[in-house]
Design brief:
By secondary structure, the protein is α/β, with parallel strands linked by helices. It has helices at about 10-40, 45-50, 55-65, 85, 105-110, 130-135, 155, 210-220, 235-240, 265-275, 315-320, 340-345, 365-370, 390-400, 415-420; strands spanning about 70-75, 95, 115-125, 140-150, 165-170, 175-180, 200-205, 225-230, 250-255, 280-285, 305-310, 325-335, 355-360, 375-380, 405-410, 430-435. Among the domains are: about 30-65; about 70-225, Leucine-rich repeat, LRR (right-handed beta-alpha superhelix) (Alpha-Beta Horseshoe), CATH 3.80.10. Helix 6 links the parallel strand 3 and strand 4 (about 140-150). The protein is flat, with a radius of gyration of 26 Å. The N and C termini lie far apart (about 90 Å).
Length: about 450
């Protein structure tokens, strides 16, 4: 008689554990299915789903937080009325503050935990608000200040509390930034150290004391990107020329006509800065009419990116003289023909990112068919203009290029979801359609000079 096999007393609990694991797998599968469905919905539909039940409310809030980091909410003395703001009030990470009664109390109650980009715009910050602000801004990564009056020094009221600030945008044109200095020193904020700061954007008609900016750079060697507004363009160049110890990875210059300086001297000075290794990459932003047809501009060393807000046929002809640009941003309207686009695409051998505001899809397709090294394309175009886009054909055209990079084409929400619903496929071997909000705009010069700067 054979010995009976011992009974495994742990067998029953194992069955229960298996059942529990199956339940967890099912819940995970349901969550993934829900996330997939939400990925097909535009913001308007997402708001509608948010109001159906508690479970979907929670899931849509998590989806919004992850996929709409650059969607902004304006905080004013009035309560929000838009359905989008009512549904996702606490999920916004990009906040524009219009100082006024109860505004900062609302910030504390709804927007204090997740905000990573905070803009102070059109208002007056009273002394009584200073203590509240300190608790709001301590973890904010991006600070933009424009159209704001501070009852005290800018540093004491705000910037000294921004202990995790990585990006600082200061706009001082036309008296847009004012600080009360009865109890302190003007521009004291320039004489401070900001250990986390990486990018500094300064727009001003003039620099009251250029020496202060030099001190700022000495105290903040961690700043790797400096964007100089057109009013202080020459001040910036002169400061760098006189201080060879100032170094940047990226130098962004807003270019405007400089009647008192010869173009040749400006280019010569920039080239000397590059030879001194004071910048690695140069970005030129043409805001007003500048005679960029002059060949001297294209002799600038280290030219990496070029932006023009009012491009015309003369700009396109000028761009044909240069091929080292890697990032290009143009607002071109109807002035760029298909043939010109083909010539530009073939000419820019090193182009990696391009942003075009266009009216005809044929203005962008040549860059897909001919620009081998392009990796990202940002397109601002009306939805109906995209309906004739033949992704199958463009993918086949790109396959004909030798060693072509895969292109990610970024569209605004309305255009993206329209294409996703109409086309059976938006991800091919060498081209893929994506949402602009899925992009880390902070690291992309080509995204309209980062939409949050506007």
């Amino acid at each position: 008689m054979t010995e009976a096999e011992p009974i495994n007393v742990g067998e029953e609990p194992n069955v229960q554990n298996d059942s529990s694991n199956d339940d967890n797998k099912f819940l995970t599968m349901m969550a993934l299915a829900g996330e997939t469905v939400l990925g097909w919905l535009c913001l308007k539909d997402l708001v509608s789903v948010n109001t159906t039940c508690k479970q979907l409310k929670k899931q849509t809030e998590e989806h919004f937080l992850e996929h709409y980091p650059w969607q902004s909410v304006h905080i004013t003395q009035y309560r929000p009325r838009k359905k989008l703001e009512l549904c996702f009030n606490a999920q916004f990470r990009n906040v524009v503050v219009h100082p006024g009664p109860e505004v900062f109390d609302r910030m504390i109650s709804h927007h204090n935990k997740r905000v990573h980009c905070l803009e102070f715009h059109k208002g007056e910050i009273a002394e009584i608000d200073n203590g509240i602000i300190a608790g709001i801004v301590k973890n904010v990564r991006i600070i933009k200040i424009t159209g704001t009056t501070f009852d005290g020094e800018l540093y004491e009221c705000l910037l000294k509390h921004c202990t995790h600030m990585e990006h600082l945008i200061i706009i001082k044109n036309d008296g847009q930034l004012k600080e009360c200095t009865q109890r302190g020193t003007k521009n004291q904020w320039l004489l401070q150290s900001y250990p986390s700061l990486k990018q500094f954007y300064l727009v001003s008609k003039s620099i009251d004391a250029p020496e202060n900016l030099k001190i700022f750079f000495r105290l903040n060697p961690n700043v790797r990107t400096f964007h100089s507004g057109n009013g202080i363009f020459m001040h910036t160049v002169n400061i760098l020329m006189a201080n060879e110890w100032i170094h940047f990875d990226e130098l962004h210059l807003d270019i405007a006509p400089c009647s008192s300086h010869s173009l040749r001297d400006i280019v010569s000075n920039l080239n000397q800065l590059y030879d001194n290794q004071q910048y690695k990459r140069l970005f030129l932003n043409v805001l007003f009419y500048v005679n960029i047809l002059d060949a001297e501009w294209w002799q600038v060393k280290g030219l990496y990116g070029f932006s023009c807000l009012n491009a015309d046929s003369n700009v396109f002809e000028a761009l044909m003289k240069v091929n080292q640009i890697r990032m290009l941003f143009l607002r071109i309207g109807e002035v760029l023909s298909h043939d010109q686009a083909v010539r530009l695409a073939k000419n820019f051998h090193n182009l990696e990112e391009i942003n075009l505001r266009i009216t005809d899809i044929n203005q962008i397709t040549p860059f897909i068919s001919h620009a081998v090294n392009v990796k990202k394309i940002y397109v601002d175009i009306e939805v109906e203009c995209l309906m004739n886009l033949d992704l199958d054909l463009l993918d086949e055209e790109r396959k004909k290029l030798k060693n072509a990079n895969k292109i990610e084409m970024y569209l605004r929400d309305s255009a993206y979801f329209e294409m996703k619903w109409k086309f059976s496929k938006i991800n091919y071997n060498l081209i893929e359609i994506k949402r602009r909000d899925d992009l880390n705009a902070l690291n992309s010069f080509a995204v309209d000079e980062m939409d949050w700067l506007k």
